[in-house]
Amino acid sequence: MNWIELFLIAVGLSMDALAVAICLGLSLAKISIKKALIVGLYFGIFQAGMPVIGYIVASQFAEHVIQYTHWVVFGLLAFLGVKMIWGSLKKETCADRVCSAMPCADRTCPGIRSDATLKPSKMIPLALATSVDAMAVGVSFAFLYVHIVPAVSLIGVITLVISMLGVKIGSVFGAKFKSKAELAGGIILVAMGLKVLLEYLLGL
Question: What is the rounded CA–CA span in Å between residue 32 and residue 36?
Fold first, then answer.
């Protein structure tokens, strides 16, 4: 797997974090580089850590299922991608937004925004929820014998940057791009899964 493919997977995985970061940006009363960096670090660290767990576990039995490697990778990436696409079809609302009108999609909401907390008790569950799926990608990396350290470093950095952008997007545009981010991420992961499978079937 080359760097371009790793980059695309990293972007695809980061879309869940982007969607949540948009919601946080919508809920924060005041946006600052510090707050955006805090959000980015939480999501980036967890998004980089989860694939390591999947990689370590899968490495124990990767050699025993080598003949099915490409099918497993395709199945995992396609499942994650379809899951994200399905999630993008839901209404563009932010669950942690306090608003008197539902759905509450953007700044036109008549309610008053609550200043979202960035304390560990709030951020760790959010970071965990957006990164659990990345564990399956770590399994894929083990089957494809990807060098895990540079791969997860790339995932972490890209997620950090995209999450910081998400905070800004949420503060300026509201939740308008939330589902679009999830849809884009899902399409990327499904496409990468298909690419791996087709390369195997066509002997490329």
Answer: 6
pLDDT at 67: 67
pLDDT of residue 187: 85
C-alpha to C-alpha distance for 129 and 127, rounded to whole angstroms:
6
50 burial (CB, 10 Å; 0-12 / 13-18 / 19+) is buried
Q: Which residues of the chain register pLDDT less than 70?
A: 62-69, 88, 91-117, 174-178, 200, 203-204
Q: Please report the pLDDT score of residue 198 as a whole number.
A: 82
SS3 per residue for the chain:
CCHHHHHHHHHHHHHHHHHHHHHHHHHCCCCCHHHHHHHHHHHHHHHHHHHHHHHHHHHCCHHHHHHHHHHHHHHHHHHHHHHHHHHHCCCCCCCCCCCCCCCCCCCCCCCCCCCCCCCHHHHHHHHHHHHCCHHHHHHHHHHHCCCHHHHHHHHHHHHHHHHHHHHHHHHHHCCCCHHHHHHHHHHHHHHHHHHHHHHHHCCC
Give me the amino acid identity at 51.
Answer: P
- Residue owning tokens 């980015």: 40
The reported pLDDT for the residue numbered 106 is 47
Residue with tokens 């002997």: 203
Tell me the whole-structure pTM to 2 decimals: 0.75
